[in-house]
Amino acid sequence: MKKSHWLLIAGVSIFALFPLVTNDQYLMHIAILILYYALVSQAWNLLSGYSGQFSFGHAAFFGIGAYTSSILLTQFQVTPWLGLVIGFVIASLMGLFIGFLAFRYKLRGAYFALGTLAFAEILRIIVQNTEFFNKTMGILIPLEANPAMFQFGSRTGYYYTILILTALVFLLVYKISRSRLGYNLIAIRENEEAAQSLGVNTYKNKMIAIALSAGLTAIGGTFYAQYLLFIEPPTTFGNDVSINILLPAIIGGAGTVLGPLVGSMIIVPLGEITSHFFGNLAGANLMVYGLILVLVILYLPEGIVGWFQNRIRKVKAARSQSKGFKNKKGVGLVETARSK
Q1: The dihedral of CA 299, 301, 305, 307: what is its sign?
Q2: Can you tell me where the transmembrane regions are (predicted)?
């Protein structure tokens, strides 16, 4: 078994033991939020971090997941576990539709970001003005402590659920990052024209990335709805939802597997601290997030994990150069001794 696999197993094991260490429900809630934001940010990272297609409208996919499972439960008595799968499919199809329009007409950079933002806003307006979605009143999910209906008697059940979902998403992204698809996405991110000239089907690879990214984000939306038991258009399709999704990956390191988790472990506790001390100041957490984002862009543009990876590469390169220099010096001494 590879070293990376052992690290993944060790990380999951540590998180799995957390409920056995503490019974504090508030700490359990914080841990759930960390894993939840790590999941949705990793989904965003697959499209925007690896392929470089910066999305500012992932709230569209998040809201689809939340509303699909909630409507199926409240109106058709369909278990949210099945709603999760259906939400994944619908969000993936929506991602393909957006990708078709955007990639077909070669929208990139700021234009692609604005395009995704526009779709999220369109969906928000449609939902909050449609009777079927209960308009601006939102959807209140009835409480029924039944694991078969994605509801648990304590936060421990939610914790292990989001832990398993997050671990599976991280494993998937890790596998993709080591596959041909992952290498193609990185090549597209670095230079799309050069990748295309080398035979990479950029359109196909970007379509796969946006479909997977959209579906995985919808999984986070389903969990959000069943955990809080209430959803409404602003909290599922709003711009702040998209910001909260992308922040952990950018701060932790976009285009890295561990970046979203590291960023989430910073963002979530910081948000709670800000809410505690500046709860009366509206938008205080967003101001703090903005300040952190500016600092990261200025001093750690590759993110925290990216910075560490670059440092490790430089150290290894310096060691290999030093070793090569010593070997050459040794060979020179031997040749000098032979000539004498």
Answers
A1: negative
A2: 5-21, 27-47, 59-76, 82-103, 110-127, 157-174, 207-225, 245-270, 277-300
Tell me the Ramachandran region of residue 52: left when phi exceeds 0, alpha when psi lies from -120 to 50, beta otherwise: left
CA angle 222, 228, 231 (to 5 degrees): 70
- Residue 118 shares a structural domain with residue 262: yes
In this predicted structure, the answer to whether residue 247 has a pLDDT above a threshold of 90 is yes
Dihedral over alpha carbons 97, 103, 104, 108 (to 10 degrees): 130
CB atoms within 10 A of CB 119: 22
19-62 tens-digit pLDDT = 998 889 999 999 999 999 999 999 999 999 999 999 999 999 99
**Domain coverage including residue 336:** 307-340
Determine the pLDDT at residue 280: 74
* CA angle centred on 52, ends 47 and 58, rounded to 5°: 40
DSSP assignment of 194-255 equals HHHHTT--HHHHHHHHHHHHHHHHHHHHHHHHHHHSEE-HHHHHSHHHHHHHHHHHHHH-TT
- Tens of pLDDT, residues 113-129: 999 999 999 999 999 99
Burial of residue 335, with CB atoms counted within 10 A of its CB: 0-12 exposed, 13-18 middle, 19 or more buried: exposed
User: What is the tally of structural domains in the chain?
Assistant: 2
Backbone φ and ψ for 141, nearest 5 degrees, come out as -90, 125
> CATH number for the domain including 269?
1.10.3470
- In angstroms, the CA 152 to CA 148 distance is 9
The 10s digit of each residue's pLDDT in 206-236 is: 999 999 999 999 999 999 999 999 999 999 9
